[in-house]
Amino acid sequence: MKTLFPKQECHVPKWFVVDATGKTLGRLATEVSKLLRGKEVSFFTPGVDQGNFVVILNAQKIEVSGKKEQQKLYYRNSRRPGGLKHETFNQLKNRMPTRIIEQAVWGMLPKGVLGRNYYRRLFVYIDSNINYFDSTEKKIQKISLENCESQNWIKPSSL
């Protein structure tokens, strides 16, 4: 018997919408990275792009545990002498809350060409209004993290 190998040409990506209201940052990022890579399918292959599109809403309402709001630091560098800047979780949340989720998900994706392709399919929004997105146009599955099993797999539910 021949081993079946999934082809990228045969894959039709799905769209998932995740509401980040009251969710813990790391737990949300792990589930989103699994969806971006396509690990929810039974024939997942690491070297083949079988990923999905993920839209995260209400990024400003993300939470972290413990004292991370005051102690967790985010760095950026302008590549100029003395250009290293740092800010706390609260400061970044007030200035640009989407970057918090983007950096957390980016850290959980593979580095390289395939990881960059997955990252391009991530869309993070501050609130729940998306003006240019028509939900009737594509098949969209809304995700709630309360439906997760003990293995942390997301079970999609219909809108």
TrEMBL record:
GO CC field: cytosolic large ribosomal subunit
SUPFAM superfamilies, sorted: Ribosomal protein L13
Single GO term (MF): structural constituent of ribosome
Keyword Ribonucleoprotein: yes
GO biological process: negative regulation of translation; translation
Endpoints of the signal sequence: none
Keywords from the UniProt entry: Plastid, Ribonucleoprotein, Ribosomal protein
InterPro entries, per database record: Ribosomal_uL13, Ribosomal_uL13_bac-type, Ribosomal_uL13_sf
NCBIfam families: rplM_bact (TIGR01066)
HAMAP family (alphabetical): Ribosomal_uL13
Family label: Belongs to the universal ribosomal protein uL13 family.
Protein name, per record: Ribosomal protein L13
